[in-house]
TrEMBL record:
<protein>
    <recommendedName>
        <fullName>Ribosomal RNA small subunit methyltransferase H</fullName>
        <ecNumber>2.1.1.199</ecNumber>
    </recommendedName>
</protein>
<keyword id="KW-0489">Methyltransferase</keyword>
<dbReference type="GO" id="GO:0005737">
    <property type="term" value="C:cytoplasm"/>
</dbReference>
<keyword id="KW-0963">Cytoplasm</keyword>
<dbReference type="InterPro" id="IPR023397">
    <property type="entry name" value="SAM-dep_MeTrfase_MraW_recog"/>
</dbReference>
<keyword id="KW-0698">rRNA processing</keyword>
<comment type="function">
    <text>Specifically methylates the N4 position of cytidine in position 1402 (C1402) of 16S rRNA.</text>
</comment>
<dbReference type="GO" id="GO:0070475">
    <property type="term" value="P:rRNA base methylation"/>
</dbReference>
<comment type="similarity">
    <text>Belongs to the methyltransferase superfamily. RsmH family.</text>
</comment>
<keyword id="KW-0808">Transferase</keyword>
<feature type="binding site">
    <location>
        <begin position="38"/>
        <end position="40"/>
    </location>
    <ligand>
        <name>S-adenosyl-L-methionine</name>
    </ligand>
</feature>
<feature type="binding site">
    <location>
        <position position="83"/>
    </location>
    <ligand>
        <name>S-adenosyl-L-methionine</name>
    </ligand>
</feature>
<keyword id="KW-0949">S-adenosyl-L-methionine</keyword>
<feature type="binding site">
    <location>
        <position position="104"/>
    </location>
    <ligand>
        <name>S-adenosyl-L-methionine</name>
    </ligand>
</feature>
<feature type="binding site">
    <location>
        <position position="56"/>
    </location>
    <ligand>
        <name>S-adenosyl-L-methionine</name>
    </ligand>
</feature>
<dbReference type="InterPro" id="IPR002903">
    <property type="entry name" value="RsmH"/>
</dbReference>
<dbReference type="GO" id="GO:0071424">
    <property type="term" value="F:rRNA (cytosine-N4-)-methyltransferase activity"/>
</dbReference>
């Protein structure tokens, strides 16, 4: 029995076959920066990787893996942490340089399906949303942030057009009753938003997405993770990133565009610009989307987009965060950091 067949997977790895096809032959040491249920890790081991470093900030990910991870022996190493620090984590695991990095950005199916984690408006649970189960929760943000900052989060992270109206209602309601439950917040949004037409998203979808991104600093972590992968990959190493909404995909697209295009960087000491050698070669000119067969097997894959690139031998360079498409609130946070 191969590692990929060791146990039923509650989370189906999205766009797995396109990743394996473009990365073939899969060899050496890979890092799965969003381990989750281990679907990508097991598939990489089955495809030929000699070792996989599985990284996740959610303690429950490794609890779920306990039933099968031992069958992989020393070919699989599980490391607690955020993929934003993947180069440091790989170094601590004695795995540098890496032959490949795969990232599946966003919330997992398991997290959405667990009401007690507070990610979903469809099930009542604590208003939490913390992937690492530490730090300020969604309830903390909703109950303490000023109205303007709440509105900015809903608008910039959720692209919610009614952000100011929703933020105003939250601030009004929390004066008498603090928000502690997911259905409590979803009910407020349902109350002030028009009922969705059949086939349209629930009115709370964008707000919950925005709060989740803010709680977990997901866009900042993505930008840092891309730069960490660039530092960690050997020449010829593969970077594969799966995203699920336009904010994430835009950051990955712009990062790889700039890193693969020999973008010019101005020098303080010379009137001309200094040409940077491309640090990546694109393996996907356009984002790869799920085909009809994958969508039939896994409807949750419908919004997934895959972008891949191969590391060159050019020295790693820090990305210009202003060109990546980070919302201004995320950009301010990364600049302070």
């Amino acid at each position: 029995m191969t590692p990929a067949q060791a146990t039923p997977d509650p989370h189906i790895p999205v766009l797995l076959q396109p990743i394996l096809e473009r990365a073939a032959p899969v060899t050496g040491t890979w890092l799965d920066g969003t381990f989750g249920a281990g679907g990508y890790s097991r598939a990489l081991l089955a495809a030929g990787a000699s070792r996989v470093i599985g990284v996740d900030q959610d303690p429950e990910a490794f609890e779920r893996a306990a039933a099968w991870a031992g069958t992989c022996g020393d070919r699989l190493a599980l490391v607690a942490g955020n993929f934003a620090d993947l180069d440091r984590l790989a170094e601590q695991a004695g795995a540098l340089p890496l032959d490949g990095v795969v990232l599946d950005i966003g919330v997992s199916s398991m997290q959405l399906d667990q009401a007690e984690r507070g990610f979903s408006f469809a099930k009542d649970g604590p208003l939490d949303m913390r992937m690492a189960q530490a730090g300020p929760s969604a309830a903390d943000l909703v109950n303490t942030l000023p109205e303007a900052q709440l509105a900015d989060i809903l608008h910039q992270y959720g692209e919610e057009r009614a952000s100011r109206r929703i933020a105003r209602a939250i601030v009004t309601d929390r004066k008498s009753t603090p928000f502690t439950r997911t259905r409590q917040l979803a009910g407020l949004i349902e109350r002030i938003m028009p009922r969705p037409k059949p086939g349209h998203p629930h009115p709370a979808t964008r707000s919950f997405q925005a709060l989740r991104i803010a709680v977990n600093d997901e866009l900042g972590a993505l930008a840092r993770g891309l730069m960490a992968a660039e530092r960690a990959l050997r020449p010829g190493g593969i970077l594969a990133v799966v995203t699920f909404h336009s904010l994430e995909d835009r950051i990955v697209k712009r990062y790889l565009r700039d890193a693969s295009g020999g973008a010019a960087r101005a020098s303080r000491h010379m009137p001309e610009t200094e040409e940077l050698a491309p640090r990546f070669a694109l393996l996907t000119r356009k984002a790869v989307e799920p085909d009809a067969e994958e969508l039939a097997a896994n409807p949750r894959a419908r919004s997934a987009r895959l972008r891949m690139a191969r590391r060159t031998d050019a020295p790693a360079a820090a990305a210009d965060l202003k060109t990546l498409g980070l919302p201004s609130i995320a950009l301010r946070q990364e600049t302070r950091a």
